[in-house]
Amino acid sequence: MKEKIIIIGAGISGLSLAIFLKKAGIDCAVYENYPYKRIEGSSFRINKSGVHVIKELGIEEHIKMSSHSADRMRLLTTDNTEIASINLMQDSTFSRRSIYMQRSDLVEILMRQAKSSGVEVHYNKKLTRFSEDASSVTAYFEDGQQEMGSLLVGADGLHSTVRNQMFPDHLLRYAKSWALYGIASFQDIDSKHVQNLMNGDELFYFSENANFLFSKSHPTDELNLSWQASGYQERKIPKEKFELRNLDELKSDLVKRYGEHGALSEIIKKSFNIIPKQIYCVDPIPSWSKGRAVVIGDSAHTINPNTGYGSSVALEDAMYLAKMLQKHHYTDALYYLEADRKDRINAIQNSLEIFDVSKGFDFSNGFDIGLFSGSTIDPNYKIHWEN
Ligand SMILES: Cc1cc2nc3c(=O)[nH]c(=O)nc-3n(C[C@H](O)[C@H](O)[C@H](O)COP(=O)(O)OP(=O)(O)OC[C@H]3O[C@@H](n4cnc5c(N)ncnc54)[C@H](O)[C@@H]3O)c2cc1C
Fold first, then answer.
1. What CA–CA distance (Å, rounded) separates 139 from 144?
2. What is the pLDDT averaged over residues 171-175?
3. What is the 79 CA–ligand 1 centroid distance (Å)?
């Protein structure tokens, strides 16, 4: 049969994989559950390994115009005492810097690039299951359509249908942490104090059992002040006390808990939207592939958002899988994907055991360097497309 790769999920890893496969001359199509719709409010850091992938995808200029790259991060307590100002030692070359941007901007840029590379992206296509025989795999969608291909890639995120069929015993588990995504506009912030405080820097507020990261996330958009917070919570919070709270209730809960005054409370009060999420993860699955199905990104290895690495790793996976498929038979490509990438994923996942920012810090006893040591993440990790 004709080689065709079926990609499930038009998120970060799915769209990136499709662009790289087209570059490699491999036929593919993407199937996405949702209709195409911009969802405002969530934003994230992309580390320099991910920004390097962005350059290789050919979208660097678009990303430059839709992201912010800070030079410094200021660490503060919730009463606005500055603990430290960290020089992020950013390179002068954009593709070697870490950036901050809105997820919706990244997905939109990837989608446009995929379409202009000739990739078919089908929306409103929810995968329900797949089957395979000796020479092909068939994807079955909720609307009754079937699609046949040579390989099925589950780029379908945390709640992956593909992973669930491959390993039904690996269920989602609460990761003892909550998170909030917020978005505001610099224009709405009256206080000169806040404007001066940020002035292009990232602000990282630590409190006992929680942290807040504020960053500019777009150079020109009106909604350009993004934040994310996370905190440690042993037992899942009941929905009515978290996900089902409305915006005003969430704001007043946060201000009550973390103080009425200063930059943190001003940004929270002026936020246009706040998305509450409780964090889930999946214990490591026995293998990232099984027969003609493989998973990448969050569906293969949930990366706790407290590491700040999820999107970078999704981009890296996509690039590496396409590179392996360009050079090898699919069985070898799937073998190398896992064999070559597993140590990196383990190092990132293990970093939380050493430095779990969701637990916050109590700086009242002073600063201890031991908090930050022991990670085995390679800060210079880079995948090369050409050999
Ligand atoms: C609170 C929070 C904060 C975060 N902060 C950061 C951060 O600072 N830095 C960072 O790098 N990462 C962060 N992340 C993680 C990051 O968002 C993910 O790791 C990244 O989006 C994973 O990309 P992906 O392509 O694997 O999955 P996704 O981007 O989730 O894409 C999966 C796609 O598959 C689709 N899909 C699902 N099921 C089906 C189906 N059955 N049929 C068809 N389509 C389907 C979905 O609709 C979606 O479009 C954070 C996540 C959370 C929750």
1. 10
2. 91
3. 33
Share the mean pLDDT of the chain. Answer: 90
Render pLDDT for 32-73 as a digit per residue (tens, 0 to 9).
999 987 776 689 999 999 999 999 999 999 999 999 999 999
* End-to-end CA, the chain: 29
3-state secondary structure of 82: strand
Rg of the chain over all Cα atoms, to the nearest angstrom: 21
Give pLDDT, residue 360: 63
- Alpha carbon distance 295, 309 (integer Å): 17
CA of residue 143 to ligand 1 center, whole Å: 23
CA distances for 291 relative to 153, 302, 325, angstroms? 11, 21, 15
* In the predicted structure, residue 367 carries a pLDDT above the cut 70: no
Identity at 205, one-letter amino acid code? Y
Give the residue whose CA is nearest to atom 21 of ligand 1: 311
For ligand 1, atom 38, which residue shows the shortest CA distance?
Answer: 156
> 353 phi and psi, to 5 degrees?
-70, -25
Q: What distance in Å separates the CA atoms of residue 371 and residue 357, rounded to the nearest whole number?
A: 10
